[in-house]
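DEPOSITED CHAIN:
***
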Amino acid sequence: MSALARTLLTGIFALLPIALTIGAIVWVGQLLQQFFGHDSLIGRFMISLGLGFAGSKAVAYLIGLLIVLSVVFVLGLLVETRVGPWVGGILERVIQRIPLFGQLYGMAKRFTSIVDPKSGQELKGMAPVWCLFGGEGGAAVLALLPSREAVLIAGERHLGVLVPSAPVPFGGALIYVPEKWVRPADGGVETLMNVYVSMGVSQPKPVPRSGVTAAVPPQ
C-alpha cells in the first residue's frame, strides 16, 4: 500500500467515529421528530393545548409542551409522596383486570422497572451466571439467571437464562440450558452490564472451577 493510500485510510478511520456519532444523533433527531414533531399525533395534541394561549402554531406547541412537562413534573411529585404508591396500586389493579391491555401494561411495567435506575427491582432479583455451553471446556457466556426454579426438558433439569445483547443489554435472548452448565459469576449485575455495554472492553471475573447453581445466591 502506497503512503498516499495509507494516509487517506488513516484520515478516514480518524473521521469514522465522528461520522458515526453524527449519524446516530441525526437518527435520534429524526425519530424524535417523527413522534414529537408538529405534524405527529403528540405534536398536534400539544398544539391544541396551547392554541388557547397563542395564535402561532410554534408558540402553541411550546406552550403545550410546557403544560405536558408541568403535568409530568406534578405526577412525579405525587409519586414521591406517600399517597403516590397507594393511588398507583389502585390504578394498577384496575388496569391489570382489563383483558389484553392489562397484559401489555404488565410487560411495559417490568421493562420500565429494569431501565429505571431508581427502582431496578427486576435486576435486583436476578443473579449473574456463567453458562458453559457444552459443559466443562465449552463456550462461556455471561448471562442473568431470573429464577433458580428448574424446568424439566426431556427428563433433564434446565434453567432459563437471559443472554443480553451488546452494547444494549436490555435486549437479548431467553435460553433454557442444562442446570449443570450454569455456574455463579462474581461481580454482581452491574459488572455484567458494564461488560456488555463496553462490548467486552471491561473484562469479567474468571469462571469458577467449582460451585454450580447451588452456589447462586437465592432471590
Q: What stands out?
A: Helices lie at 3-36, 41-50, 57-80, 83-96, 101-115, 121-124, 188-197. The radius of gyration is 24 Å.
